[in-house]
Amino acid sequence: MVSKALRPLLAAVAILAAAAGAAASGTASGDRPASTPLPAPSGFRAELLDTAAQPAAGRPTWTTAWTLSWNPVPGAVRYEITAVGPEGEGSAPMRRTTEPTLTLSVASGAGQLPTSAAVRDAQIAYRSTQLGVRVTAVAADGVVGLPSRVLPVGQPPAG
Questions:
Q1: Taking the alpha carbons of 24, 30, 33, 39 in that order, is the dihedral positive or negative?
Q2: Cα angle value 126/127/128 (rounded, 5°)
Q3: Which of 30, 36, 116, 120 has the fewest CB atoms found within 10 Å of its own CB?
Q4: Within the chain, which residues score under 70 in pLDDT?
Q5: pTM of this prediction?
């Protein structure tokens, strides 16, 4: 039998234990359990954007940027983009972003772009064989989600 003096203390301990159990399971706010990773990002779209510059003196220059975007992952506070090359996947993200988009320069050169189109296309094709990216969503509690498939840099996503 518990004395009257200890009953309020035991009640408080029981309430704290229940709250701690609910918080640990992620059910206190109705969110996903803390140990459940977010799904892999999907809905990838890519585009190439050419920009040209005409310096006051000298040859014109051009640059091609590859922009990859994806559908926002519900519950994600940021995305980590990891480089994947011929030697394997990087051990740390090459970039972190809060927006579901990534822009990388994939080709550049001197001269007029229409006459340099073959050079541009060759640079983009080479880049796509040497560098891919994998995107992962990260939740507010720091749990890293499931990774996307590898997307070759410079190319439109397959499927």
A1: negative
A2: 90
A3: 30
A4: 1-35, 159
A5: 0.74
